[in-house]
Amino acid sequence: MTWTAVILAAGLSTRFKSERPKVVHPLAGRPMIQHVLKSLRAAGCPHPPVVVIGLNASAVREAAGPDVRFAVQPEPRGTGDAVRWAEPILRGEVPHILITYADLPLVRPETFRRLIETHQATGATLTFLTVHRADPAGYGRVVRDPAGRALRIVEEAEANPEEREISEINVGVYVVREPWLWVALSRLQPSPAKGEIYLTDLVALAAAEGARIETVALEDPEEALGINTRVQLAEAERILRRRINTRWMLEGVTLLDPERVYIGAEVSIGPDTVIYPDTYIEGETRIGRRCRIGPNTILRDAVVGDECVVEASVVEGAVLADRVHVGPFARLRPGTRLAEDVHVGNFAEIKNSAVGPRTRMHHFGYLGDATVGADVNIGAGTVTCNFDGVRKHPTIIEDEAFIGSDTMLVAPVRVGRRAKTGAGSVVTRDVPPETLVYGVPARPRSPSQDVGDASGAD
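Now predict its structure.
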């Protein structure tokens, strides 16, 4: 069936009490509206959906991203009026239109598909989602005739006591035949109670005309949760986090305590990786196979290879090759690239630096804007002094160099292959290959001097 979607996002979000529209607030690491868009795409929506927004909704435009069309509702006159503003874009484009809300982020792709398939199989004019709730307060009730046919949806503010006892509620997702939709919307009248044009009145209009109306009951009532308050946002976060964690466990990832692990919607994790409690994996982080992550760890927009260990550390915008060990208590900042078998230990910080294979920085140090070769030992307390107050300067440490404890490398500076620095050295000039320097400022060892080798804590 050829169809497209209209997403209603023009609400004022008054109950959310925010300076930003509620549909741009993050949920499992992505804007709320993005969950709706992703589900529609996964359901097979063949045309770019139309998002109906209000005036001054630049934040919603930005959050929705590309491949989306926009219609603007200039005044908040209700949901029925909002859909009208999509007519100039969609008239005659497709025979069926799915309508949903940007604050319904929990509806699964499978549910959208089931609704569409039912609509197609039955030849209905209008098909909509319903769900039964033990406490239906706040939702529109589905009124049926004795034969079970849907007659209308009555909003709670306008329901009589008998109607308020109905447990079946309207979820707010519809599929409607396109030519009929625009004519029907033009016939809707404002509500006497609020003066708004309700989209829900389409059901009564279709029933009065004798048009075929079908309903699809939700299999998972949690999908019906609409987000109007921050309490409901937190509940949706809990539900999505459980869904995401369950999916990764079924994919072969071990979560030792799923209730204490946060995994964002864009994350990828390889099988046989073990995630320990109190770990946050956010953004577009990618983790390989057979890793051990956590406890007490934050990964944000990181790439982690196979068989890595990241323990009690913060890794953001960094790339780790295979068999890298980080932590505990390390911080890897954006632009960090660690090659195979690198070890970064406790209280070490690296920023915008490339570190070669098998290099060790076991504890207490800082590398910034540095290029470090293979098999280098970075002694405890080593600092690359990369900032002169105006500009950042590079440090280069070549293969198999040995940097003694408490060495200050005053950039720009290069330490040659197999060179060594003595403990406490302040290196202000390039160090030739296979040369030992020490002192303040550091100078090469004289053949006549009888001093010990460089010393660096391991």
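Residues 3-224 form a domain with the Spore Coat Polysaccharide Biosynthesis Protein SpsA; Chain A fold (CATH 3.90.550.10).
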